[in-house]
UniProtKB/TrEMBL annotation:
Residues 1-311 form the GH10 domain. Its EC number is 3.2.1.8. It comes from Cellulomonas composti. The active site is at residue 233. Belongs to the glycosyl hydrolase 10 (cellulase F) family. The keyword Transmembrane helix does not apply. This is Beta-xylanase. One of its GO terms (biological process) is xylan catabolic process. Signal peptide: none annotated. Gene3D superfamilies: Glycosidases (3.20.20.80). It is an enzyme of class 3 (hydrolase). It catalyses: Endohydrolysis of (1->4)-beta-D-xylosidic linkages in xylans.
Length: 312
């Protein structure tokens, strides 16, 4: 059997998956994780509601499990994430400006310091923009602290871990348009002013047929700012039940995304948002869509597997 991780390694690209450590008890899940991937991102257990459920009370146990698993199986850990408007415990949402700034800086500092030297990168800020390119209005950080919270989070992360790569991560960023233009402008500004930023994550939650034609061009323009790029959360959802035709189109899409990453020198790799259609966030969020990953619900490799092998 071919190994995506081995092919990726030969091509100088990480092949990652979003891990739910609870699923490692599932033998097939564990087997594919062990043989097919060389990077993990925690699907949920490094998010704020898990790591700091109460003010100043940190709970790193589940995240430590992910890191230990990665170290035992020779995989990199991509840190996801430090500051996001979702997966936030209620206490964060009731703070005044000074208290929220202190809480955010404390959270970033403590979490980045805890896994210092054991993660290769952090999504320091996740999803700060709306699709129209404006700052997201439904973020408590945006509402209470204003635009400057993003820069503050990056500076705080750098102080806590001087060596880790610091990334901005978002969705609907894969093509050139108002949202990616706004993020591009922010990254350019950060680079010009010496605000520490090393990488941009393009999530890649795509509908079948949705790989933009300008993906490479878009990745290249970010790379030209002096940052690495990465596809961080790839899944390609299809209407369910999935038809054979859609699964073939999905395979083309997976192949196109991996090929795009190989074409761009500063693209470090591709992470899929899970392993198997048995466990995916998609059906819970997109009604009547699903089956977005490389292995089906019975752990059989889908056409997407061959397409990724071909691309790598
Ligand atoms: C999702 C997880 O997959 C779900 O299990 C959870 O209920 C919600 O979050 N963008 C991100 C990820 O950055 O953290 C999200 O993960 C998917 C969208």
């Amino acid at each position: 059997e071919q190994s995506l991780a081995a092919l990726g390694k030969a091509a100088g690209r990480d092949v990652g998956f979003a891990i739910d450590p609870v699923r490692l008890g599932d033998q097939e899940y564990a087997r594919i994780a062990a043989t097919q991937y060389d990077l993990v991102a925690a699907e949920n257990v490094m998010k704020w509601e898990t790591t700091e459920p109460d003010d100043g009370r940190f709970e790193f146990g589940p995240g430590d499990d992910v890191v230990r698993y990665a170290e035992a199986t020779d995989k990199k850990v991509y840190g996801h994430n430090l500051v996001w408007h979702e997966a936030l415990p209620a206490w964060v949402k009731s703070l005044d400006e000074d208290a929220l700034r202190t809480a955010m800086e404390d959270h970033v500092r403590t979490q980045a310091a805890h896994w210092r030297g054991r993660v290769i990168a952090w999504d320091v800020v996740n999803e700060a923009f709306d699709d129209d390119g404006s700052r997201r209005g439904d973020s408590v950080f945006q509402q209470v602290l204003g635009d400057g919270y993003v820069e503050d989070a990056f500076r705080t992360a750098r102080a806590a871990d001087p060596d880790v790569d610091l990334c901005y991560n978002d969705y609907n960023l894969e093509w050139i348009g108002p949202k990616s233009d706004a993020v591009y402008a922010m990254v350019a500004d950060f680079r010009a002013r010496g605000v520490p930023i090393d990488c941009v994550g393009f999530q890649g939650h795509l509908p079948v047929g949705g790989v933009p034609g300008d993906l490479v061009e878009n990745l290249e323009r970010f790379a030209a700012l002096g940052v690495d790029v990465r596809i961080t959360e790839l899944d390609v959802r299809v209407p369910t039940p999935a038809s054979d035709g859609d699964l073939r189109r999905q395979a083309d899409d997976f192949g196109a995304v991996f090929s795009a990453c190989l074409e761009v020198e500063r693209c470090r790799g591709v992470t899929t948002w899970g392993i198997t259609d048995r466990y995916s966030w998609v059906p819970s969020v997109f009604p009547d869509e699903g089956a977005p990953l490389i292995w089906d619900a019975a752990y059989r490799p889908k056409p997407a597997f061959d397409a990724v092998v071909e691309a790598l």
